[in-house]
Design a protein that fits this description.
- The protein is α+β, with helices and mostly antiparallel strands and 329 residues long.
- It is built from eleven helices and 14 strands.
- It has helices spanning 4-8, 24-37, 55-63, 75-85, 102-106, 114-123, 156-163, 166-172, 176-184, 247-259, 266-274, and strands spanning 13-17, 44-47, 68-73, 92-96, 125-137, 143-148, 151-155, 191-197, 203-207, 209-213, 235-240, 281-286, 288-301, 304-325.
- The two termini are 40 Å apart.
């Protein structure tokens, strides 16, 4: 016979929040009201710290039998919570804050409507997406394994993130990355690397940056990888290889004009098909990629710097994360 008390148990939400990124008072009020309206139990509140940005805290939420976990903060908080929820089946709800909000943008989730974002936890629909997993090897042989939701990068983009002012990000948002690029230009040199796809033959390549994507949209709405989908079981790769004095202009034409403008219409796509391919941007697809560099290079995951790496092994974990989104979105 079933235990009557077990049958009476109300579902419970957990909120993992970054107190620096969110208005805690407004967040508590929105979650409390939504939980009461849905007749859920008392919400579990868990605050991130510098020592634990989310992964360990999520373990607490799982042990306390949370039925859904809201990640309230920037991309770093969302990435850390997703890493903790990997393969758990417990839905993640994104309450966007910070500058990038990369996964929220790629999934077209609410960015400024707090009530709608919170309501998704209690009335939304579940969507299954992939996670990217990167094993990072340091110069001393030490390794770390981390998940990413949107993009991992080595080269210029990682240097840009390292050199971007935190104060400027708070003041002007994603535009601060332009300043980061300017600060990175003096260090700009091609990176010679060797790579292999899906366990195949190792090849050599010289790039300014290589980005491995689970999704395709960058801050500012720039579409870097037009074929990337967060639930297709593969990773998309963009290698930026500007050649000669006009190389970066060609890269910009590809990303901003072709991907951002022409692909939005049938006529534009015909123009792309008839145009000469831009050799300064190389696209690849894979489920597994291994990278080796001659000298340690900066590496980033979802817009956060992860130090220097001498090699990186990255693969897709298909269907590893459940994201709860607003109903009908």
């Amino acid at each position: 016979m079933a235990n009557p008390k077990a049958q009476e148990r109300k579902p419970v939400a957990a909120v993992v929040f970054n107190p620096i990124k969110v208005d805690t008072e407004k967040l508590r009020a929105a979650v409390t009201k939504a939980a009461e309206d849905a007749e859920w139990g008392e919400t579990i509140w868990l605050e991130t710290t510098e020592e634990d940005p989310g992964q360990g805290i999520v373990g607490t939420a799982i042990r306390r039998k949370a039925d859904v976990v809201l990640a309230a903060g920037g991309d770093g908080t969302v990435r850390a919570v997703a890493e903790g929820l990997r393969d758990s089946g417990i839905p993640l709800v994104i309450v966007a804050a910070g500058t990038g909000n990369l996964l929220a943008r790629n999934l077209e989730l609410p960015l400024t409507d707090l009530d709608s974002a919170v309501a998704a936890a209690f009335t939304g629909e579940d969507r299954i997406i992939d996670l990217g997993i990167s094993e990072i090897t340091r110069a001393d042989g030490a390794t770390e394994e981390h998940a990413f939701l949107v993009m991992a990068g080595l080269g210029l983009d990682a240097k840009m993130i390292k050199n971007t002012s935190t104060k400027l990000k708070k003041a002007v948002g994603w535009l601060a990355y332009i300043d980061g690029i300017a600060r990175s230009l003096p260090e700009l040199k091609p990176v010679r690397l060797k790579y292999s796809l899906d366990g195949g033959v190792e090849r050599a390549m010289s790039v300014h940056t290589i980005i491995i994507g689970n999704c395709g949209v960058l801050p500012g709405g720039l579409l870097l990888m037009p074929e990337a989908e967060p639930d297709d079981g593969v990773l998309d790769i963009a290698a930026l290889r500007p050649r000669g004095p006009f190389g970066w202009a060609q890269v910009w034409r590809k990303v901003a004009w072709e991907n951002g403008v022409l692909r939005k219409s049938a006529m534009g796509r015909k123009i792309i098909d008839l145009s000469k391919d831009v050799r300064d941007v190389t696209y690849l697809k894979t489920r597994d990629i291994r990278l080796r560099v001659e000298h340690p290079q900066e590496f980033q995951l979802d817009g956060d710097e992860f130090g220097e790496a001498v090699s990186v092994h990255t693969w897709v974990d298909p269907g590893a994360l459940t994201v709860r989104v607003p109903a009908g979105s």
